[in-house]
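Appendix B, record 7
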Amino acid sequence: MKKLIYVLMFLTFAGLANAQWQPDVRLTNASGSSYTSLNNTKCIATNGNVVHTVWYDNREGNWEIYYKRSTDGGTIWQADTRLTYNTAYSESPSVAVSGLNIHVVWKDSRNDNFFEIYYKRSTDGGTTWGPDTRLTNNNAWSDFPSIAVSGSLVHVVWEDICDGNWEIYYKRSTDGGINWGADTRLTNNNAGSYIPSITVSGKLINVVWYDWRDDNNEIYYKRSTDGGTNWGADTRLTNNTDDSHSPSIAVSDTPINVVWCDWRDGNAEIYYKRSADGGTTWEADIRLTNNTEWSRYPSIAVSGLLVHVIWEDWRDGKSEIYYKRSADGGASWEADTRLTNNNDYSSLPSIAVSGLLVHVVWIDLRDGNHEIYYKRNPTGNVGIKNISTEVSSEFSLEQNYPNPFNPTTNIKFAIPRASSVKISVFDATGREVKVLVNEQLQPGTYQADWNASAYSSGVYFYKLSAGDFLETKRMILLK
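Structure tokens (predicted):
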């Protein structure tokens, strides 16, 4: 009975977390049109309470790249910053952040050569920006860039027709964007490969795209395990009789998460797939949407076991933005949540998470003009379960369960008063390998989950720090 009460309380808490979506915020208000990019890119990125978003805009009579930031988690937004100044088109930006370093790529036609890929960075959190850097230089079209960053390693992918056929290309910088290596061709087949999406976890680089080599659009995946120096073989992720396209990818430690639009059901639906071992093997496809109208252009973000998906949906007679999340690493999914409700269409959403916050941007026509809109959920990225609000008389840390475990275990703890709580995992040498909780919590009993699929078997220790209270316990990962 007690277990049932805890489950019901968790479901209520999860529902309340999803209910905390705040009102839409209009980010642009100009005479021209403002557009986010396709779902392969991320038009929003976060680092703590600093939120960065990019888009392209023709308010000056020409398509240019714009940037905007919030330094308080999305409550207040600073003025628009124009990043490009030329007489040609600058479109389809993608943004990534590492500390104070903000990295932006886009496609640009300033060279009278269709489009080339350009790059720009800020090293002070978006206050000032360096010069434009041209990344591609060939006699054909380079399109739809996507960017990811890990420390000083910056990774860019795009589609390119320089070989007479649309192929996926990759380029990296090992010094934070100052210098760039040579282009690397990732695909080589006699059909088209389109619209890549990239994500990175340490030296594990993951790329997805859709490909026509099988006489049908299918989702393909490729990885590098050494930071982009060498690349493994192409892996076909989908295999059905109709088109799969528009993939988006995200990673947390080793688990890799992919979403895409799929027509196998006679209707455009959102599908999801994951790999728990860094891309070596892949689990079965999971259908996330089920309605009679189109669901398309998904974007995905991951934080620990929390997986967040956003997409454009036509079930209401016009395109609206919908959201769905999983709290257990993609094994099960909560109900769809409709985020927009206005008299015109909302499209091309992009999602990011930081701390407890979930951030979404999209384009919206409700004002009679394409504008950029933003929405946030201040508790949507809760990485722990509040399993009881009954106030404990003292701090406590329970033994993890199960123990030994493979690969997931649960850690329960209680706090008698509002406290800054941190739970860290250490290996046998005393090196901190994972922070499970690091936030201000109200009194209650909580459960933190650790998915150790990325770690080797052995003895680990977990420590609870809350105010003056410290306690450490031992656990065993047995694979």
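Remarks on this record: The domain at 21-382 is CATH 2.120.10.10 (Neuraminidase). The two ends are 32 Å apart (CA to CA).
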